[in-house]
Amino acid sequence: xxxxxxxxxxxxxxxxxxxxxAPQQVxxxxxxxxxxxxxxxxxxxxxASYAETVLAPYTRFRxxxxxxxxxxxxxxxxxxxxxxxxxxTSRRGLIISQWTKDDFPEFEAISRIVMTGPVEVLLAxxxxxxxxxxxxxxxxxxxxxxxxxxxxxSNKRHAAIGKKDGFIDxxxxxxxxxxxxxxxxxxxxxDMDLKEQTxxxxxxxxxxxxxxxxxxxxxxxxxxMQGLAPIAFPPGAYFVRLHPKLPSVIMIASQGGQxxxxxxxxxxxxxxxxxxxxxxxxxxxxxxxxxxISAVDAFSLHHLWAHNPEHSTMSNRAPLDYASLxxxxxxxxxxxxxxxxxTIGMPHYRETLLSAWPTQTIFRSAGTIPxxxxxxxxxxxxxxxxxxxxxxxxxxxxGKRNMAKKYVKVAGSSASGKFLSSxxxxxxxxxxxxxxxxxxxxxxxxxxxxxxxxxxxxxxxxILYSKFGIDDFxxxxxNQTKFSGLECHxxxxxxxxxxxxxxxxxxxxxxxxxxxxxENLNQDxxxxxxxxxxxxxxxxxxxxxxxxxxxHTLSSxxxxxxxxxxxxxxxxxxxxxxxDLVQRSQWFNIFLLNKLLSDERVSKQPxxxxxxxxxxxxxxxxxxxxxxxxxxxxxxATLKLFLEVTSPRANNFEKTPHIPAQPDVIQYIESSMNxxxxxxxxxxxxxxxxxxxxxxxxxxxxxxxxxxxxxxSEEKRQIRNTxxxxxxxxxxxxxxxxxxxxxxxxxxxxxxASYFEEYELVGFVAEISGEAExxxxxxxxxxxxxxxxxxxxxxxxxxxxxxxxxxxxxxxxSYWWKTPVTLVYRNSNSPSEFHYDAWKxxxxxxxxxxxxxxxxxxxxxxxxxxxxxxxEAPHPGSLVAIDTEFVTIxxxxxxxxxxxxxxxxxxxxxALARVSVLRGDDGDKFAVPFIDDWVVVKENIHDxxxxxxxxxxxxxxxxxxxxxxxxRQVVYRKLWLLLNLGCVFVGHxxxxxxxxxxxxxxxxQVRDTAVFFYKGQRILSLRFLAYVLLDKKVQEGNHDSIxxxxxxxxxxxxxxxxxxxxxxxxxxxxxxxxxxxxxFKPPGEE
Length: 1086
What we know:
Helix content is 16%, strand content 31%. Helix 4 packs across helix 5 (526-540), helix 5 packs antiparallel against helix 6 and helix 17 packs across helix 18. It is α+β, with helices and mostly antiparallel strands. Strands 34, 37, 38, 39, 40, 41, 42, 43 and 44 form a nine-stranded mixed β-sheet that branches. It is globular.
């Protein structure tokens, strides 16, 4: 906290006109917390305010008949007292309210005042300590108190009362009692301050009949109610203030103007300054932002000091009202041949006019940071001489050379996100968001013809976090469709594009969701996680969702490390990450399809069921090999779940009349189905080399054809010059030379193929390149039927952004920034219905009626629940009360700015630790738990959150825990079954619980007491609602999820009773009124 400097000196009082009159003197000052004002009171009862850092006079008014004793900043203006009256005045100088002992006898002889809330003030009077509500104009509490009060300060929870004898009483604002008394080493006190839980004081001691300032500043900790080591200040401390943003920093000043800025935790770090005062310093204040210091000397000369003046603020910067100035009368000057131009005056100017600049003026940059060279340019560089390299430059991608790009701020742009808290509702506005504009519209997908700029809809999106967390981000702004998008702040979020693509393939969707009927509790089953994910995307009904459980399972599979498809560094011995995004996505496609096939075999073979995925995606390939010299022939057959598509030239495909010079995607696929290659091999028998020719020929095209498009840089440029390269359908027919593909059957010579099957494009994943490598990402284009119609529309999925898009724009791959990665075609004759309830066929719900503990769980485990019986089988409408507990595995990340403020970069990552579910229907077992599962967490736990979760170290480890431990897959299946069987979930604050569980519950199946008992902008805690409605104290020790679920269930029953008796609105109003008095906490709660 160095670099303090003086900004200006300004006299606050005018000299008296009558030399014989008593001179005026400034008695108190204070910074306004709302606007850039400094208030000052004087000995004649006047109060004045001074604006901005220049201290321009703003208002001045007579507030009291006597000398102004104290001034406080108030949300509505300024609060002042002279000991007889208490006055609230607006910043414009207009009186709002004034109270005297005639209004309240308790106001007799006011000695000090201090704010204890937004509108509450604590007064020290002859009657004791009086809490007064300035908004309602009423006394809320009176506490008898006898003592000569000379100083008071508050942190809104405690008030420190300094007495004339040097003792300090700590007053509890809520209970109205003195909780502690501190003794100082001073005969009397001169100043003190309280911020958060730290209290600092200074005073004077009588030595040899003379008072002198103490060389020590006393420090007290209100958490432990103990004194700390004092801070030395040899000049003698007369004023002391705690820094508002840095509570460990103390500002100390002497009467002579010497100022120290000291760090309590490191007293060696001291900044010294000297305020050039007159005889003595009378006032010393620091602004609420911590950036300005106000000091007034005995000559009423105001000294304003600042820390980093160019980037400092005095307050919250609320605008000030100024008087309207009359507009000057308009004067028109007629310009003609007789009146010269110089008759028109010019405004005042300080800089040289453009017309007077020298003709040889050259503008030079002050040091612009050079733009980083893209890796693709460096990769294409080749050496043409000693130390000389050249590289190709894509003008379409990077624009003209040597052109400075306009700086675009992230905050406020379409890619930066919208916050619900900043949304203004206007009945006349029909746009999606008030800040939306044509330049910043996140839904703009058309590319301007005269620019290479990527349209906003295709740009990489980020989720930003306000002080309210993830709930404040306006996801609905980015999606106005019924299809749900996926959040991007998860591991391996690049997989979102491919997951969305297969979500809209009916055969794959029905296969994945149908697999949920089989109980598969394996911890590495991607098939089960994919089925859950697709079911949740349907139930989300257009709301955003995140694939955390799927990604958690993917990251736990060892083969995924070896393939290199994981973005996050998991410290695997063989682990690596494929840097090229297209290659990584295509390898993930291969890995995913093969893993789904193996997972299906594992789950179906024990039941004697036949696998389906091979029939849906299996591409049968015949490999015919021939040695040229030995004329040896071999053949083999393989089954692949995808087709690797390369160009006809790469496939050595023989040119025929129907293959044009610039082939489209159909010729690419056809050549890949009849791929020919030759290679040099060693003949071990003849000890020589031979040439081996191999024909890879597809013998069966499956119902769903998944194609990985592999292109070279030259081929990418070629397809961008090919009109309509991407085709929305093709016809495939078998001929003697293999499969023959064509866009239209008409015009094909008869006898070319025995039959034709039509395939239509379902969708594709595309790479969207940015000018910087970090901006490159993947999006999905899919074709779906509109609701209630047979017509198909195209949609684009860019993580959580989902928009309809015209077909010609979706299929257009001529842009430099758009490259197809994976295509999916399906047989047009295959049924296209989505079976959203495919999981119902042969559903296995046995896990609800039995235990399935994790391996290694102790036999001596505690069981605090009673399993459901078949007679209690859940049915649609069954009430269940739920509560969950979590642990933190990654702490939240903040950005702390130089002014002390901080912004959330990434919220904490939490893992499910315990789930308790209670019976909610009336009966003998009402509120009896039937699920109380503790979940094994294998990750390193950063914080157990024991105070809030009740989870302690070792509770989630099978080797040390005595709890009923299960895997995440077990507890998730139980909750998923309850959801799909139609149960109604009762709880408190379920939104966060469902998000961390990674489950999407329709609103019709949620009864959230936090929502029912919500009014205004404050959500009531479960503990407070239980106290005021059930007369019950809960959560007094560590939290217990069974107790919390039971409390939420009883609150819901109370809500139904109040609604039935038409007493709910009246009761809710009473709850909030009582909450205002109790600070929305049960009595006695810290």
